[in-house]
Design goal:
Chain A is of the alpha/beta class. Chain A contains 19 helices and 20 strands. Chain A has a six-stranded mixed sheet with strand order 6-7-8-3-9-10, with helices on both faces. In chain A, helix 5 runs parallel beside helix 6, helix 14 packs across helix 15 and helix 15 runs parallel beside helix 16. Chain A is globular and about 70 Å long. Chain A starts with 6 loop residues before the first strand and ends with a helix. Chain B has a two-stranded antiparallel ribbon. Classes of the chains: A alpha/beta, B mainly alpha.
């Protein structure tokens, strides 16, 4: 070891209930170096960050900061010890109605030893000092509301840096920034690096990672699945370690599909993105995979009429299809099992059968008078078909486990005949058994419709898809039939190297 | 034995019957029955049809307003303007008949139109202008309180009043209109049921059926529970929200019509308590049968509860100035039932 680590985590463990979220994590951060932490959803990144920043307590393991034992019990304690975290949601780091100077000094305005009276001139002069040191060039009197997201982000970081931390944790700092804004952030990160701060940078964006990383650590299912160092970083290897390479299960009978159900021509889903074509056939399960933020959910919402494309046309069964509302999409037989069920799917005050029948109430309600008996009958069929574990169809949603709640969401959209069924991250927060049930059901029932599934984890795509499409930068960059997939090629496409490989 | 274990799940799932759940479910209804028995035993005349009708009549107008505001609570909103919509409708009907010499039908239609328009404006402010519901309807309340005073320069409307331009208003309340406030239908006993009570019961049944047994009502509950999920299930969320405020406005204007018919004049000072009483009834309704959510049946029971309590206390010679205190106390207890004891609090 040339250099002793500034911050070290060893054998970190944490479980919530029966779920082991972190299963022995080791991590080294060096002074003046950027360590990138990569991990898919649910890999344990945010839990790790929360333990390090003092939000959660750990079950086992040690943490040392500059050779000394580090054991924060509150976020404030972590900050005082010199470990500062800038969280993903930018507006959590700033107070919108105050000016820049007050925001920069916010931490000194409260807590022990803070002055009782607010001395504007003093706050400004101190804030000026902090801003100069960080190279922030904007007006300290400006209100946070007037700043762009990147500027707010920089204020949040500068505020964090005003405490002279030894370790800075940036949790997906560019997730809502444009690329020009991100450039300014990177300049700031490089500046901090030269000042000897140890930086842990959490991101999915390959472009960020290429720009900044001195070292990449991949986290998967609660343990470190790969550490990449040296002058030439192996980005593909890192993506591979993060997503896990496990080629198809072999028992999958890949279907070619029947007649074409849905097509797009020159569909552009984001400004500046390359238009693409999509072709979905009856009886075929197509998975679209790609990292977080490459436009998967955007595409899902466009197909479902919840969002408008920039340009291009869509056709359903040969007829032009341009839904202006989710209502029209449902009427045309295009259904979406939306991502993040608690936010976008479940009606918490409704029980199981009411949740299942929700989009199709008109069909259940002659003369608009609801027929609960028919709804319950349909829900009971769905419960037995999908193996939903519950006492009756009148159970509250809150009594169900995550996997069963997701099954109810799938049951909702499978309870009527679809032309095109779209599922956006249907396995998020779902246990293995439920995941298998849903996957099997999807494949068994696929014959009557076209099925499109958006998945970040390629494992899941291998498990259920006939065809795998890769999405990057809001367009489709690759296509693979799910038999003898060239995994290296697939990973390269996911990692955004399709252009490079095309040139070769 | 094995057969009973294997039966399909058709039995109604009930939370285990422990004291807490029984209390949550039947506490308020039991309390209401207890009150009725208590007052019947303690006072002479409480347990009579006339007394029962009197209770219903005393809560009829607030009850109608409360049923309307229930619709806005269902979609996760709130309507503070109902009291002023009612008084505006009252003033408008008086103005139409007394000053403009219109007939009962014109006056009634004018009131209903006011309810629809105010509901639409409330809905548009909240949905499209993104004004928070409490603030939008608070603003509307102020606006209407002021607006209803402008045509008469702040005077109450009655036959023979002098107008701002010096003329005298010679119109009268039409007899048909006054009948809405004074006629009583025969029901077992001659001339027992006042029109307002019949209207209350009819509207309660209508809104109950609408909310519980039509797909529109179900969608409104879905909107109130998870707006985004409802939208992604194809519900025109904005239309449902605006619709709820229109329902609320129309119900409030019906309340105003009945108020005008009962008073026989456009009294600038009446209707002060309508808003608070109606909101209290709707919120008490959360606690009825452990619903923990706005519901028409609960609202009706809530209104009835307040009416019974006040009538009983009055017959036991409690002074009138204790009434608001009693209502407030009931509301607080009901809210504790709803939020602290039931599942809502455990979120």
């Amino acid at each position: 070891m040339v250099e002793e680590a500034m911050f070290r985590v060893e054998g970190l463990r944490k479980s919530f209930g029966t779920i082991q979220v972190l299963d022995g994590v080791d991590l080294d951060l060096r002074a003046g170096s950027v360590t990138v932490l990569m991990g898919a959803n649910g890999a344990g990144k945010s839990t790790l960050v929360r333990i390090v920043s003092g939000v959660y307590s750990r079950d086992a393991g040690t943490m040392t900061l500059a050779g000394r034992n580090y054991d924060p019990t509150t976020p404030a304690e972590a900050m005082r010890a010199g470990v500062v975290t800038v969280h993903q949601n930018i507006n959590d780091g700033v107070v919108a109605d105050l000016d820049v100077a007050t925001n920069l000094m916010l931490d000194r305005l409260s807590g022990k030893g803070a002055r009782w009276f607010f001395n504007r001139r003093r706050v400004y002069s101190e804030a000026r000092e902090v801003a100069d040191r960080m190279g922030l060039a904007f007006d300290l009197r400006a209100n946070i509301n007037e700043l762009t997201l990147a500027e707010r982000q920089m204020v949040a970081i500068a505020r964090a840096m005003s405490r002279e931390p030894q370790v800075l944790i940036l949790d997906e700092p560019t997730s809502s920034l444009s690329s020009a804004e991100a450039d300014r952030l990177f300049a700031l990160v490089n500046r901090l690096k030269t000042r000897g701060v140890a930086i842990l940078y959490i991101s999915h964006r390959m472009s960020d990672i290429r720009r900044l990383s001195d070292k990449i650590v991949a986290l998967r299912d609660g343990h470190i699945s790969g550490v990449f160092e040296g002058p030439e970083l192996d980005y593909e290897g890192a993506v591979n370690a993060m997503l896990g390479r496990r080629v198809g299960r072999g028992d999958l009978a890949v279907s070619e599909g029947g007649d074409t159900v849905f097509t797009t021509k020159n569909l552009q889903i984001a400004p500046g993105a390359k238009p693409f074509a999509l072709n979905l056939r009856r009886g075929e399960v197509v998975a679209i995979t790609g990292l977080v933020g490459v436009g998967k959910t955007v595409l899902a919402e466009i197909l479902f009429g919840a969002r408008k494309p920039i340009s291009g046309e869509m056709r359903l069964n040969g007829r032009p299809y341009a839904p202006r509302s989710t209502h029209q999409a449902i009427g045309a037989g295009v259904f979406l099992v939306a991502k993040d069920r608690s936010d976008s799917g479940i009606v918490p005050d409704f029980n199981i059968y009411e949740n299942v029948s929700l989009p199709f109430l008109r069909r259940f309600s002659p003369y608009s008078v609801s027929n609960r008996k028919a709804e319950r009958l349909r829900a009971r069929q769905q419960i037995s078909e999908l193996g939903i574990v519950c006492r009756t169809e009148r159970d509250d949603m809150s009594t169900l486990s995550g996997g069963n709640q997701q099954k109810v969401m799938v049951a909702r959209w499978m309870s009527q005949k679809a032309e095109l069924l779209i599922l956006d991250e249907p396995f998020q927060g779902v246990d293995i058994a439920a995941r298998r049930d849903i996957g099997n059901k999807l494949r068994v029932s696929a014959g009557e419709r076209a099925t499109l599934v958006f998945l970040t984890e390629i494992d899941e795509a291998f498990e259920i898809a006939d065809r795998i499409l890769v999405m990057s930068e809001h367009t489709i960059v690759g296509e693979h039939r799910n038999s003898n997939v060239d995994v290296t090629q697939l990973l390269a496409e996911i990692a955004g190297q399709h252009k490079v490989t095309n040139l070769d | 034995m094995t057969e009973t274990l294997a039966t399909t799940p058709t039995a109604r799932p009930r939370a285990p019957l422990n004291l807490r759940n029984v209390l949550i479910r039947y506490g308020f209804v039991t309390l209401l029955l207890g009150l009725i028995i208590f007052f019947s035993a303690m006072t002479r005349g409480f347990a009579s049809p006339q007394s029962a009708v009197f209770v219903l009549q005393s809560v009829s107008i607030t009850g109608i307003l409360a049923l309307g505001v229930t619709a806005t609570l269902v979609v996760g909103g709130f309507d503070l303007s109902i009291g002023s919509v009612a008084t505006t409708a009252m003033m408008a009907s008086s103005y139409v008949m007394v000053v403009m010499g219109g007939d009962a039908v014109t006056a009634t239609l004018a009131c209903l139109a006011i309810g629809v328009v105010v509901g639409l404006i409330n809905g548009v402010l909240i949905v499209y202008m993104r004004v928070p519901d409490l603030l939008a309807t608070l603003g509307m309340m102020f606006l209407l309180v002021g607006l209803q005073r402008i045509p008469t320069e702040g005077r109450s409307i009655a036959t023979g009043m002098s107008m701002p331009d010096g003329s005298v208003a010679n119109g009268t309340f039409s007899p048909e209109f006054l009948a809405l406030g004074r006629h009583r239908f025969d029901f077992f006993l001659p001339s027992l049921l006042p029109v307002s009570v019949v209207v209350l019961i009819a509207l309660a049944v209508v809104i109950w059926f609408f909310l519980e047994h039509t797909r529109f009502g179900r969608m409104m509950y879905a909107v109130g529970s998870n707006e985004r999920a409802a939208q992604l299930a194809g519900a025109p969320v904005n239309a449902y929200k605006i619709g709820a405020y229109v329902i609320s406005g129309v119900f409030a204007s019906i309340g105003g019509i009945l108020l005008a018919a009962r008073l026989g004049r456009g009294d600038i000072a009446s209707g002060n308590n309508l808003l608070l009483d109606a909101v209290a009834a709707a919120l008490i309704g959360f606690a009825v049968l452990g619903a923990s959510k706005p519901n028409a049946f609960g609202t009706a029971i809530g209104a009835l509860f307040v009416g019974v309590l006040l009538q009983g206390l009055t017959m036991m010679n409690a002074p009138y100035y204790t009434q608001d205190f009693v209502k407030g106390a009931v509301l607080v207890v009901a809210l504790v039932f709803t939020f602290a004891l039931s599942k809502r609090g455990k979120r």
